[in-house]
Design a protein that fits this description.
Layout lengths: L2 E5 L5 E4 L4 E4 L3 H7 L3 H4 L2 E8 L2 H9 L3 H4 L2 E6 L2 H20 L10 H21 L5 E5 L6 H8 L4 E5 L7 H4 L5 H8 L4 E4 L2 H14 L10 E3 L6 H7 L3 H14 L3 E8 L6 H14 L7 E8 L6 H21 L7 E5 L4 H10 L2 E4 L8 H9 L7 E5 L12 E3 L4 H12 L3 H17 L2 H12 L29 E5 L19 H12 L3 E6 L4 H9 L6 E4 L4 E4 L4 E4 L7 H16 L4 E4 L3 E5 L5 H18 L5 E6 L2 E6 L4 H11 L6 E6 L5 H8 L5 E7 L8 E3 L5 H12 L3
Parallel strand pairs: 1-4, 1-6, 4-5, 6-7, 7-8, 8-9, 10-11, 10-13, 11-12, 13-14, 14-15, 16-17, 16-25, 17-18, 25-26, 26-27
Antiparallel strand pairs: 2-3, 18-19, 19-20, 21-22, 22-24, 23-24
Length: 730
C-alpha cells in the first residue's frame, strides 16, 4: 500500500526521556489524521517532524508508536541552534506577524532566513530519501514554504500537497516580504494548495500575479478546505462524568450570573486588549447589567520567554485590574481572570455554562475554540458565539454573531444583544451549526484535501453561448393560431426560494394560467425539474387541470386520465450512488447546502451557503462531475445556485420533441420560456426545427440560446397577460 507522508514542524507526540514514555499531542491536525483509516483513503499515514534532541530521536525510532498515534513517526534531527534561528528568528519573528497583518512586530534577520533555508533543505532531503514513487507528500504550514522547491528539484514526479493553517495576507502586505518570490515559486510547484478561507486563496492568487509579473496560478491546484474538529469527541466529552463534576462546581458559583467566556492563547493576534476595551464600554453603556454579568477570561500561556509576549501579558493584566477596580464591588468581580491551561473536562463544562463565547481575533487562520463551543452546547439552553469577522471560522459558523473587534462601541452593543438573544433563535441557530459540524468533521477535512490532491479536473472548459436582446414584436403572430407553450416552473412561473419546499405560486399567476388553459387555440405544459409529489401539491391537489411534466420530462401527467406516465424505461441508475457520494462530500464542507433526490435527477443546492465560497466550490464540482461522468448516460448542468445530474433521457429537450411529434393537432407556433441551464435543452430542440415557428424566451440576463429575454422573474405575469391577449385576439 502506498503512503501519505505528513510533514509538520513537530511530531504528533511528546517524549518523556526520563520515563521513556510518549503521549499523543492534541490539535486539529492530529485529530483529523487519527480519525482516518487506511481503508477509507487507500494508503497508510506516516508522520515526519523535527526533533532537536538526539535521545528523543533514538527513543522514537526504537519504540513502536502504533498504540500511541496509529502511525509510524520519522523524527528529523535538526541542531538546536539552527532550529532556534529557523523557528524564532524567521517563522515567529517574520512570517507569523506579517501573515497576521502585524507589520510592526516583524523583525527581519538574515540569520533567520539562512536557518529557514537550511531546515527546509534537511526536511526535503529526508522526504526524497524516504518516499517511493507512488507515495504522496502532504506539507503543513508556513514553516516549510521552501520544501516543495527542494523536493521537486530531486524528485519532480512526486505528488506534493501543501496546506496553510494561517491566513495568507493581501498582496500589499505580502509584497513587503524580502523572500516573496522564493516562497511563491516554491508553492506553485505543488500539486494542490489548500487554504481555510476563500479570501486567503484570493490573496495568494493576487500575490502571484503582482509579485511574479502576471503569472497565473493553475486554478485546479487551488482549494478551500476549512478545517473542522472531532465533533463526536467534543459532543461525548460534554456528557462525561468528569465534566459533570465541574458543571456542578461551577454552577454553584455562577448561580444566576451570566457568563461571557473568552479562551485565548497569549498572542497579539487574539485581540485581547480589544476585547477588554469592548467589555469596559459595555459596562459603561449598560449599568443595569452590573452584577448580572461576568467575563470569564482564560489565557493559555504561550512564548512567555519572548519580551513582546511578556509585555502583552502585563498590558492585559493591567487592563483587567483597571476594569475590576473601576466597576467591581465586594460582591461582584466584573472579570474572572485565569492565566493557565485547563483540562478538557473543565473546558467542556465552561463551554456549556457560558451564555456567550467571545472571539475578538485581530486575525486568525481558523479559531477552533468557536467550533468546540458550538458542538458542546445543549439543545435546551444553548449559548451565542460572538465571532470576529477576521477569523477563518467566520465563514463556517453561519449563525455566529459577527463583530469587528476594532469597533469598540458596536461590539459592546453586540455583547448586550448576544446576552439577551431570544431562546428560540438560539436553539434554531445552534442546531443548524451543530448539524453542519456533525456532517463535516476534522477527518472529512483531511479526506477532501487528499481527494483533490489525487484528482485533476478537465482543462477543456465549455463556454456559454451568446444571445441577442429583443422585444416581442412576434406577439402579433399568436392571433388565431394554434399555440403550444412550455413553461418552466422555478425562476419562471414562481420566484426562486431559499429552500425548494418553500416555493408558492402567486394567485395572479395561477389565474393567468387558467385563462390561457381555457383559451380554445392554446395548449400548455408546465415542465419542471421538480418531482411528481411537489407538482401534485402545487397543481393537481387543487384540481387546476394543467398538463404537467416532472423531473425534466421523465414523467408526464394528463388531467384527462389523472395519471402519471413514466416516459423513461425503467432500469438501474448505476450513476446515482456515485453522484450522491460526490455531492455528499461537497455538502459536508459547504454550510447551508443540501441534496435533493428527484428520482431520475440529483440536485445539489447551495443558495443558503456563503456566496463566494459556495460559488467557488460549485465550479470545482461542476467540472469534476463532467469528467467523472463523461461515459455515463447523464447530463451535468449548472443552474441558479444548483448543480444537477440527471438521466440523459430526463431532458426537457427530449420531452418537447416527443410531445410535438405525438401531438394530434400539430401547432402553428411553439413558445418556450425558462430561466436556467435545463431550459436550454428546450431552446436547442426548438431552434433546430424548420417545420414549426418557435419563440424561446429566457428569464434573466444570462447567456442563452434564446433570442429574447425577460429581465426579471417578477415581469413574467406581465408577459403572460400579453400572451393571453394575443391568443384571444381575432
Amino acid at each position: 500500500m502506498s503512503r501519505c507522508l505528513l510533514v509538520s514542524n513537530r511530531l504528533p507526540i511528546s517524549v518523556n526521556v526520563t520515563e521513556k514514555k510518549m503521549t499523543i499531542n492534541s490539535g486539529g491536525l492530529v485529530s483529523a489524521i487519527r480519525g482516518l483509516s487506511s481503508e477509507k483513503v487507500g494508503f497508510d499515514f506516516e508522520w515526519m517532524g523535527i526533533i532537536t534532541n538526539q535521545i528523543e530521536k533514538e527513543l522514537i525510532t526504537q519504540m513502536s508508536l502504533d498504540s500511541i498515534c496509529n502511525m509510524k513517526c520519522h523524527p528529523l534531527y535538526v541542531d538546536e541552534k539552527v532550529f532556534h534561528d529557523y523557528y524564532n528568528l524567521y517563522c515567529n519573528n517574520v512570517l507569523w506577524p506579517l501573515f497576521h497583518y502585524e507589520r510592526s512586530m516583524v523583525r527581519h534577520n538574515q540569520e533567520g532566513w539562512k536557518a529557514y533555508c537550511e531546515v527546509n533543505k534537511i526536511v526535503a532531503e529526508a522526504i526524497t530519501e524516504e518516499a517511493s514513487e507512488d507515495d504522496i507528500i502532504w506539507i503543513h504550514d508556513f514553516h516549510f514554504f521552501l520544501v516543495p522547491t527542494f523536493i521537486k528539484e530531486k524528485r519532480p514526479h512526486l505528488k506534493v500537497g501543501f496546506f496553510l493553517h494561517i491566513p495568507f495576507p493581501s498582496s500589499e502586505i505580502f509584497r513587503e516580504l524580502p523572500q516573496r518570490k522564493d516562497i511563491l515559486n516554491s508553492l506553485l510547484l505543488c500539486d494542490q494548495i489548500g487554504f481555510h478561507d476563500l479570501s486567503y486563496l484570493n490573496h495568494f492568487r493576487s500575490s502571484v500575479q503582482r509579485v511574479l509579473g502576471g503569472v497565473q496560478p493553475r486554478e485546479e491546484v487551488l482549494g478551500v478546505y476549512p478545517i473542522s474538529i472531532d465533533s463526536e469527541l467534543f459532543h461525548q466529552l460534554a456528557r462525561r462524568n468528569e465534566t459533570s463534576e465541574f458543571l456542578k462546581t461551577y454552577q454553584s458559583h455562577k448561580k444566576k450570573m451570566r457568563w461571557i467566556l473568552g479562551i485565548d492563547r497569549l498572542d497579539y493576534i487574539k485581540g485581547l486588549p480589544l476585547k477588554l476595551s469592548s467589555y469596559k464600554s459595555f459596562l459603561k453603556k449598560f449599568p443595569e447589567e452590573h452584577k448580572k454579568i461576568q467575563l470569564v477570561q482564560i489565557i493559555i500561556p504561550s512564548r512567555i520567554d519572548v519580551p513582546e509576549y511578556r509585555i502583552l501579558k502585563e498590558k492585559i493584566e493591567q487592563k483587567i485590574s483597571s476594569i475590576n477596580g473601576e466597576f467591581g464591588s465586594p460582591d461582584w468581580v466584573p472579570i474572572q481572570y485565569i492565566f493557565n491551561s485547563v483540562s478538557e473536562f473543565e473546558l467542556s463544562a465552561l463551554y456549556q455554562l457560558s451564555d456567550v463565547l467571545q472571539v475578538s481575533s485581530r486575525r486568525d487562520g481558523m479559531n477552533l475554540v468557536s467550533l468546540e463551543y458550538v458542538i458542546s452546547q445543549s439543545p435546551e439552553q444553548p449559548g451565542v458565539v460572538l465571532l470576529s469577522e477576521f477569523a477563518g471560522a467566520h465563514s463556517t459558523l453561519s449563525y455566529a454573531m459577527s463583530i469587528n473587534p476594532w469597533n469598540i462601541q458596536e461590539t459592546a452593543i453586540k455583547m448586550k444583544e448576544a446576552i439577551h438573544h431570544p431562546l428560540q433563535k438560539r436553539k434554531q441557530e445552534i442546531k443548524s451549526m451543530q448539524n453542519f459540524l456533525f456532517g463535516y468533521n476534522s477527518s472529512d477535512w483531511a479526506k477532501l484535501f487528499l481527494r483533490d490532491l489525487l484528482w485533476r479536473p478537465n482543462e477543456n472548459v465549455k463556454k456559454s453561448n451568446t444571445f441577442s436582446n429583443g422585444n416581442f414584436p412576434w406577439m402579433e403572430k399568436l392571433k388565431s393560431k394554434k399555440v403550444l407553450m412550455f413553461f418552466d416552473f422555478d425562476g419562471t412561473l414562481s420566484p426562486i426560494a431559499s429552500r425548494p419546499k418553500e416555493v408558492k405560486t402567486e394567485a395572479k399567476t395561477i389565474e393567468l394560467l387558467q385563462l390561457i388553459n381555457n383559451s380554445p387555440n392554446s395548449e400548455f405544459v408546465i415542465i419542471s425539474g421538480r418531482d411528481k409529489e411537489f407538482l401534485e401539491e402545487q397543481f393537481i391537489d387543487h384540481d387546476l387541470g394543467f398538463r404537467l411534466a416532472a423531473c425534466h420530462g421523465a414523467y408526464s401527467y394528463s388531467p384527462k386520465d389523472h395519471t402519471w406516465v413514466n416516459l423513461i424505461p425503467n432500469g438501474p441508475l448505476k450513476w446515482k450512488e456515485n453522484v450522491i457520494e460526490i455531492f455528499d462530500l461537497y455538502t459536508k464542507r459547504t454550510p447551508g447546502s443540501f441534496i435533493e433526490d428527484k428520482g431520475h435527477a440529483i440536485t445539489w443546492h447551495y443558495r443558503q451557503s456563503p456566496r463566494e465560497f459556495a460559488d467557488f466550490l460549485a465550479t470545482k464540482l461542476f467540472y469534476e462531475l463532467e469528467e467523472h461522468l463523461a461515459n455515463s448516460p447523464v447530463q451535468v448542468s449548472r443552474g441558479k445556485k444548483i448543480i444537477e445530474v440527471k438521466s440523459m433521457n430526463a431532458n426537457k429537450g427530449f420531452f418537447v420533441q416527443n410531445w410535438i411529434q405525438s401531438s394530434h393537432n400539430k401547432p402553428d407556433i411553439v413558445l418556450a420560456i425558462g430561466d436556467d441551464a435545463t431550459d436550454e435543452d428546450m431552446f436547442s430542440v426548438l431552434q433546430g426545427r424548420n417545420d414549426i415557428e418557435s419563440f424561446c424566451i429566457k428569464v434573466g440576463k444570462d447567456k442563452s440560446l434564446a433570442h429574447f429575454h425577460i429581465d426579471e422573474q417578477n415581469q413574467v405575469n406581465q408577459f403572460l397577460e400579453r400572451v393571453l391577449i394575443a391568443i384571444n385576439s381575432k
